[in-house]
Amino acid sequence: MSGDHAVDRATEAFVAHRNLLFTIAYEMLGSAADAEDVLQETWLRWVQVDLDQVCDERAYLIRITTRQALNRLRMMSRRKESYVGPWLPEPLLTAPDVAQDVELAESVSMAVMLVLETLSPTERAVFVLHEVFDVGYDEIAAAVDKSLAAVRQIAHRARRHVDARRPRQVVSQREKRAALESFVRALEDGDLQGLLDVLAPEVVYMGDGGGVKHAVLRPIVGSDKVARLLVSRLTFLQSENPTPVAFGPTLVNGSPALAIHLDGEVDAIMTARVEDGRITGLYAVRNPEKLSHIASENPLTLQ
User: Fold this and answer.
1) What is the DSSP string of 198-253?
2) Which pairing describes strands 199-208 and 246-252: parallel, antiparallel, or unpaired?
3) How far is CA 284 from CA 106, 257, 297, in A?
4) Residues 126 and 155 sit within 8 Å (Cβ to Cβ)
């Protein structure tokens, strides 16, 4: 095979599976920037492969991506140990078709991504590949360099762990949107009772400023504490800035979310976990490094 033809074939296969590879890397890492780096590393290795010896290009690309993502994930684990405050996954602008795929939308939701953070790197890789993308155990074993029996055990352990912590029910996009609209209306009005009506009693609020922007340094639990904190924070921001704080609807990680604008710039992305019509989790990302993709990129179509 000539060099140019080999590169063309490699490029064609990589482009055909790029969305899938990005989504696998993102779900393993929780970072779009790191997922893009993993794809770059995958491409550099892929173009060195003799494609005449490859029986299944998709499986081979998944194997490279998984191994590179595992290496990156172990590096990130050390980085997170010195992170200031809670570490939240990087928000990902997603196209409407992601929300229509219920299983995919749930798998990239902030609530589930936070659960994935509690898995070991290998457990996370096995769970993402098998449960989200239905990759066979034999392919996963090759990707994570484990025996077939070990991969089956890891998959069972990871599934049980995630099922015990993920949202109990699938919530419609309409219900999530309605809860967020009620939340914004009450917050803008400074209506504490309105906030208490939409926040579940056990609601958890988490903020991620990365030590660069002001954010809570630990989770805040309880509707009264969360409501008073948010009203106080919004009042302070309104008093300090000549332009009003603006809440705009957006679609992040496959679900309705809020883009919070300050002085015309995206200051935060807030996502919510909704159960039984009330908000049980609020996640606000303010770290500028995690918002760079939000302002500059078009919504992504995942696979």
Assistant:
1) HEEEEEEEEEE-TTTS---SS-EESHHHHHHHHHHHHHHHHHH-SSPPEEEEEEET
2) unpaired
3) 18, 10, 20
4) yes
Q: Which token pair is 148? A: 């077939």
Q: How far apart are CA 190 and CA 74, in angstroms?
A: 43
* Cβ 225 vs Cβ 189: under 8 Å: no
Q: Say what the pLDDT of residue 1 is.
A: 53
Beta strands across the sheet bearing 278-285: 220-221, 199-208, 278-285, 265-275, 255-262, 246-252
Instruction: Check the CA dihedral 15-114-276-234 and report its sign.
Output: negative
| Residues 248-301: tens digit of each pLDDT | 999 999 899 999 998 888 999 999 999 999 999 999 999 999 998 776 555 555
Tens of pLDDT, residues 128-150: 999 999 999 999 999 999 999 99
Structure tokens at 260: 């919070």
Kind plus residue range of the DSSP H or E element containing 27: helix 3-29
Residue 108 to residue 131: CA distance in whole angstroms: 12
Q: What is the pTM of this model?
A: 0.89
Would you state the structure tokens that stand for residue 277, as one six-digit string?
Answer: 């019509």
DSSP structure string for 55-123: S-HHHHHHHHHHHHHHHHHHHHHHHHHT-SS---PPP-BB-HHHHHSHHHHHHTSHHHHHHHTTS-HHH
Of 42, 35, 36, the C-alpha closest to 11 is 42
Give me 97's structure tokens. 């078709």
Taking the mean position of all CA atoms in its chain, how far away is CA 220? 21
Amino acid at 5: H
Q: What is the pLDDT of residue 101?
A: 59
